[in-house]
Each structure stands twice: as C-alpha cells, then as structure tokens.
Amino acid sequence: MSFNTFGHLFRVTTFGESHGPAIGGVVDGCPPGIRFRLEEVQAALDKRRPGQSRFTTQRREPDEVKILSGVLAEADGMLTTTGTPIALLIENVDQRSKDYAAISESYRPGHADYAYDAKYGLRDHRGGGRSSARETAVRVAAGAIAAKVLTGVTLTGALVQMGDIVIDRANWDSAEIGRNPFFCPDAAAAARMEAYLDGIRKAGSSVGAVIEVVAEGVPPGLGAPLYGKLDADLASALMSINAVKGVEIGEGFASAALTGEANADEMRMGNDGRPVFLANHAGGILGGISTGQPVVVRFAVKPTSSILTPRHTVTRHGEDADIVTKGRHDPCVGIRAVPVGEAMVACVLADHVLRHRGQVGTPPVWPFPR
C-alpha cells in the first residue's frame, strides 16, 4: 500500500493498524533546534484519547507516545530536535478483535470495507485496520511537533455543529472549549448537545459534526498561486481525516449567496502604517497565499458508520445480508476529530513555512520591496 506520507518538506509518514500491536510514524524534515517537552506532545494526544467520557468510544487506550529518535534529551527534561527523522511509537493495549468476528464476511454500509476490498483484494475487518481512525493518534503527535515550528501562531479547534445543533457565535467563549466533552465554545449549545447525544448513544446510533480550526498569527506570503495553494493543501490534509466529507475556507459554501460587494474583504491603512482588512470572508487566504489574517477552515464529519440498527448489506461472497455492528464506537466521531484537525492544520502550516523559507527567505515586511 502506497501513499502513507503527506507533506513536502515537513513530511509525516504513519504506519500500523487499529488492532495491531502498535501504531507509529516518522516526522522527517523538522528543522534542528526545535525545543519541546514530551509532556506537550502527550497533552495533545490526551485531547484525542478515547474513553474520557460517555460520548466517545470506551476503548481504553492510554495513547502513551514514545520518541525513538531525532531528539536530544536535556537535563531539564527538554527535548531538542536534531534535524534527523523523529520516530514516534504508540502501543495498542486494548484491542477486542472478537467484537468484529460476526462481520468478518459482511461489508459495513458507509464504511471503507467494500472499497478497501475492491482495491486490495483483502481487508482487516477488526475495526477497519489501516483505514481506522486509530491512525489519527500519530497525526496528533506529529502536529504537536509541527506546532513548535510555528513561532507566534496560535491554533484553536472547536466543534461548531453537532447534528442540527449549531452554536450561537455571539456566545463564543474560547475558554469554554476545554470545559465540556465536545470542545464546544458555546456553553448553551454544549448543554443541548449533551442531551441530544445521550439519546443518539442510547439508541445505538450516531451523528455527524462540523469542526472549525482557526490559526492566528500566520504571516502573509505562505502558499503559491497555482499548484501549491495553501488552501488546497489544507483542504487535502483535512479531507484525508477519516469520515471527513467536506472542507471550506472562510465563508466557504456560504459565499455562493453573497454579492461581490458583500464578499470583498475591504482594506484601509492602519495606524501602524500597515494595511488592515475590514472583514475576513476569504478565511485568511487569497489566491492560494496567506494574507496575514486568521486562517479559518471548517470540515464536516459524517456519522460513524458502526451502528446497532440493522442495515442491508452484502457479503464478500455476493450474498444479501443484514448487519449490526457491535463493539465500542464513537456516537459522534467529530468530537475527537477536533484535535486531529488542529494537528493537520499545524502540519500544513509548518510545511508551508519551510517551503516559503526555502524559496524566498523570511516572511515579507511591509512595505513590500519593489
């Protein structure tokens, strides 16, 4: 199987399966001299870790990350990157493969089973194998390292919609994101989500979600106007996350309902002699290049395919069948997709920072040289 690597200069390769002994990855291209603590990487993984509330899968994985290479340990506990490949390992300790025995010959509707089998002529029915969201733990670890490359950039991910419950942006409180199990910035919406998802969970069903990631402090000039667009790379990275079915930048699909006057991000000169944008409909990216405004991306996550309601399907042998997927599953996989989205945005931005540095040097300084 090819295509296990993403990125150009900041490159991440992952390996492992959901029910194998471990998952892991290699971060290649990280500059030397980046300092961080292992606890910082672990903290990012803990945000994604399963089994932390009744609203996520009850698979009990500590997701303890080990760094096998690419860093030097200092006496104060700091790690410093050496510029060589950083190898990451996360052991799987709570697999229950027997939960999937009953569906070993049947394809789960909405899951990757059939497409995977059609391509490779085999599949790992135990939780999806390589196509399982378990793989995203490695992305989160890599993203924590990428974030250290992004000096001055702050990343904030939040769940802004679950099913038909949409947050009220007038109630946005970034501090609230860490206070509820949904990473939701609206306390009132989070309370409604709790009651709603309890009903979904008890019925053995699932529901989708929309996640928003905002990157503040991104310098202008990242990206290229044609085949290296920053927004295209962000869309590709986010679409690679399991169960993601849509990505938008800035106003996204809502821009189709705007006029040219309403959509234009007008500009004026600020008191510091630098341009100031009066709006950010473009989500911080114009012509594939960052403007210096906050980069705003959203992605839609479909409902988890593994549900208890009987569904029509077929077997590998061409027989009609009904299927019920038992085991431990997220009633809303979008919840744990929040830290995954943050990680993928961090990796893309780190990659573009290094690409920009390699082509034109440091970020541009206003007024731009002519």
TrEMBL record:
Q: Where does FMN bind?
A: R130, S131, S132, N242, A243, G287, K302, P303, T304, S305, S306, R328
Q: What class of enzyme is it?
A: lyase
Return the EC number. 4.2.3.5
**MF terms in GO:** chorismate synthase activity
Q: Does the keyword Amino-acid biosynthesis apply?
A: yes
Its UniProt entry gives the catalysed reaction(s) as: 5-O-(1-carboxyvinyl)-3-phosphoshikimate = chorismate + phosphate
Q: How is the cofactor bound?
A: Reduced FMN (FMNH(2)).
Family matches, as Pfam families: Chorismate_synt (PF01264)
Pathway, according to UniProt? Metabolic intermediate biosynthesis; chorismate biosynthesis; chorismate from D-erythrose 4-phosphate and phosphoenolpyruvate: step 7/7
On subunit structure and binding partners, the annotation says: Homotetramer.
Mind telling me what this protein is named?
A: Chorismate synthase
